[in-house]
Amino acid sequence: MATTLDKPAVPTVSLASQEADPDAFAQALGGSFERYGFAIVADHGVSPAIIADAEAKAKAFFALPDDVKRAYHLKGSNGQRGYIPFGIETAKGAKAYDLKEFWHVGRDLPEGDPLRAVMPDNVWPAEVQGFHEAEIALYDALEKAGARLLSAVARYLDLAPDYFEATVENGNSVLRLLHYPPIDADGPNIRAGAHEDINTITLLLGAEEAGLELLDRDGDWLPVQPGPGELAINVGDMLQRLTNNVLRSTTHRVMNPAPERRGHSRYSMPFFLHFRPDYLIETLPQCITPDRPNLYPVPITAHDYLFERLREIKLA
Ligand SMILES: O=C(O)CCC(=O)C(=O)O
Ligand SMILES: [Fe+2]
């Protein structure tokens, strides 16, 4: 197998630099998305206290007894809210389930909001005090950071910097709190099988604990290693589709730990930023050229696309 040691790593870009030079930031982020489908983002403005609190509350939940956690495994939300026990999610086309349990937080919608017809209600674990507030604070902070990143994506694509604002307003974004328990020995299952994310972009916290790898275009698996507190960002299938594959939704996985780390849990918190449900994903004209004909001539709404994909991963 080819070694990855002589390869350049996914670049780290500073979101704080966007203010002084938005075009340079857009080129750095967009270039990394075009090359790897991933970027590492430092200085993202999500407060360390908010991150620490959200992570502490997630850990407290996962430490509860199994039967208590399973009471939050909902039947009606297609795996979009509440607790999803160990052994359910299976990467598209894979036989072995992922070695993880997780909790999904959606948009907190007020009573009577018409969007509740398409977005399931949140549930909250009564056993963990402050869980709701802590997770919604992180949801909101990651949504804000995501909007800043999308303005750079818009610039990179020669769109107006505010192009994506209306497309993600009231989007069906989901914060996933993940727990990968300790592992006895390696078997056929891994922590997260090779997959692509369905959504627009993903903002991932917690990947400083080793394991995350992306499938590079030459077939090598390349580790993605953010520094403490940094975000790993990746392009999802919806943005890939909108950009006619100019920005790449890259296959990634979470490998099992080295023997000396097997006794440790891994916790991570990806925020899957989504378009609003009725947004029509229709190939951007500037991403269609004679060399790159339109790969997706039939547009689809974000909602329909999501449900097509959820069925494939056995969540719907
Ligand atoms: O836990 C990680 O580092 C990545 C998780 C992931 O790729 C996912 O949940 O889609
Ligand atoms: Fe993923």
TrEMBL record:
EC number: 1.13.12.19, 1.14.20.7
Record pathway: Alkene biosynthesis; ethylene biosynthesis via 2-oxoglutarate
Cofactors required: Fe(2+)
SUPFAM superfamilies: Clavaminate synthase-like (SSF51197)
Organism in which the protein naturally occurs: Sphingomonas vulcanisoli
Residue intervals of the Fe2OG dioxygenase domain: 170-275
InterPro entries referenced in this protein's UniProt entry, alphabetically: DIOX_N, IPNS-like_FE2OG_OXY, IPNS-like_sf, Iron_ascorbate_oxido_reductase, Oxoglu/Fe-dep_dioxygenase_dom
Record carries keyword Metal-binding: yes
Name of the protein described by the UniProt record: 2-oxoglutarate-dependent ethylene/succinate-forming enzyme
Keyword Metal-binding: yes
Broad EC category: oxidoreductase
